[in-house]
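User: I'm preparing a small set of examples for a lab meeting where we compare how different chains pack in three dimensions. I only have the primary sequence for this one, and I'd like the structure in token form so I can line it up with the others. Please keep the answer compact; I'll paste it straight into my notes.
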Amino acid sequence: MTSDSLPHSNLAEPLLVDLQGVRQIYHKSDKPDLVVLDDVTMKVQAGEIVGLLGRSGSGKSTLLRIISGLLTPTSGVVRWCGEHVSGPCEGLSMVFQSFALFPWLTVLANVEIGLEALGVPKDEGRRRALQAIDLIGLDGFESAYPKELSGGMRQRVGFARALVVHPRLMLMDEPFSALDVLTAETLRTDIVQLWMSGKLPIQSILMVTHNIEEAVLMCDRLLVFSANPGRVATEIRVDLPRPRNRLSSQFRELVDDIYGLMTQTVPGKWQGRRQGEAVVAGSLSMPLTSVSTNRLAGMMETLTAAPYEGRADLPDLAGRLQMEADELFPAMETLQLLQFATMDQGDVHLTDSGKRFAQSDVDARKRLFGQQLLAHVPLAALIGRVLEERPSHRAPFVRFSAELEDTMSEDRAEETMRAIISWGRYGELFGYDEQAQEFNLENPGEN
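Assistant: Understood. Below is the structure token output for the 447-residue chain.
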């Protein structure tokens, strides 16, 4: 252990972050309020790694900005080391997904730059920067520029820059998601080993991730967020001893439990964006996620074939397809919405319609997809009905998007419309003219 390291078992101030009833709302003059976070209450103690796990739209990255003092919440209490947060907090550092390095600076200069802002003397800053570079495994690359480094090495520079200020808490916003699988695994393992050895000059880590296995591998405690708006749905304590074995029955069981937890709310209710209003599946107000028909078709083909034969464990399927939860869940929910599949406790089962789709030729697939879309997505049925009733068989985009914006945000309405355009074309229910921004019955299926 270096002289600058902080052993996790002997810390002066155990409570670092304390949030009570935090809400974040964005007001729009002529649109429904966008509720990003609602009634978030959480704590981060010294000596633990805490993971924020959830889907896109659950406000996890927004929450990191609030904790760091870069964003003031609409309401609620935010305390850092016992003090109310009223601006940027000292003693925090951040590791970003996108590396965020200065391309014109060397590795050493990129790491030193944060110390200059803190007024650390040059000689002391150089010593600490070299120590951080060595710690994170970049010794010998001090004079290299970012363009000379691989993605994994650039992210190591990001970690060194965050560690060099000796923060009490290091915030990590999906720090491994931009890396290839093997590089991410290596860097993740190195960070865990440094944490276990007490060599990291920090007291705690708070990380955002979409990767369920990553969360179980690294964290002591997980806060699972629901989406639209973001709320802490469940807290899970990970009591598995480190280093953790992905293949152990306890590890796999916990991963399975989390997948089941994150999919159990799919069948009944869909969360809208207006003050926590519940939107019933099958209503016009149901937001849709734009998932490509190629992905949906590929998943049904995979599920039909061996070894699954129509039924799969979601963690196993995610591993085989190399998909994180944030990619997997929207596709699974779309299959379930169209009644091509059902989900139960972390397992996905193809319905007879799903199996028939996977075994059909291209034309039969399109007909079946269109039938399911009309039967189970009211927006598709509405567009088809309006086009049939109009003598011109044409209707503008805004005719339907404006109706959606009465119950959801403008961005959510846009994504819902883009999903229905793609699915309706594939199912040959209607065409869409991008230039005129107009639906029609003249060229269904054409792009």
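A couple of notes for your slides: The longest strand covers residues 15-26. The chain has two domains: 15-91+167-262, 293-440.

User: Perfect, thanks.
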